[in-house]
Design goal:
The protein is an all-beta fold and about 120 residues long. The protein is about 0% helix and about 55% strand. It contains no helices and 11 strands. Strands 2, 4, 5, 6, 9, 10 and 11 form a 7-stranded mixed beta sheet that branches. Strand 7 and strand 8 form a beta hairpin. The radius of gyration is 14 Å and the shape is globular.
């Protein structure tokens, strides 16, 4: 079965950096666009960053542009989120998503999430 396992979250001071990883298994990784979402308490889930199946295109929420970078490693079937200059408002559970449009259906798989807390 499909598994997405996130890691790399934790407590960090404002201005510092973290790298999140999401290891995928049970799917053909290169067929899926990969996305990072985040959800803070009392707020809606927010799409933070996405990368196409080929890795040729990326997109970011305005709130993280210039600070976050999404990348993927086909050989390791892993997607990363490099987060620089972290702010307290970046505090949230970060979730990895694999998405593919196939045979007129949207296929979505989710990881369990990893907590990122930005606080002094």
């Amino acid at each position: 079965q499909v598994q997405l396992v996130e890691s790399g979250g934790g407590l960090v001071q404002p201005g510092r950096s973290l790298i999140l990883s999401c290891a995928a298994s049970g799917l053909i990784f290169s067929n899926y666009a990969m996305r990072w979402y985040r959800q803070a308490p009392g707020k809606e889930r927010e799409l933070v960053a996405s990368i196409t199946a080929t890795g040729g295109g990326t997109d970011y929420a305005d709130s993280v542009k210039g600070r976050f970078t999404i990348s993927r490693d086909k050989a390791k079937a892993t997607v990363y989120l490099q987060m620089n200059n972290l702010k307290p408002e970046d505090t949230a559970v970060y979730l990895c998503n694999a998405y593919r449009r196939y045979m007129l259906k949207d296929l979505n798989y989710w990881g369990q999430g990893t907590q990122v807390t930005v606080s002094s």
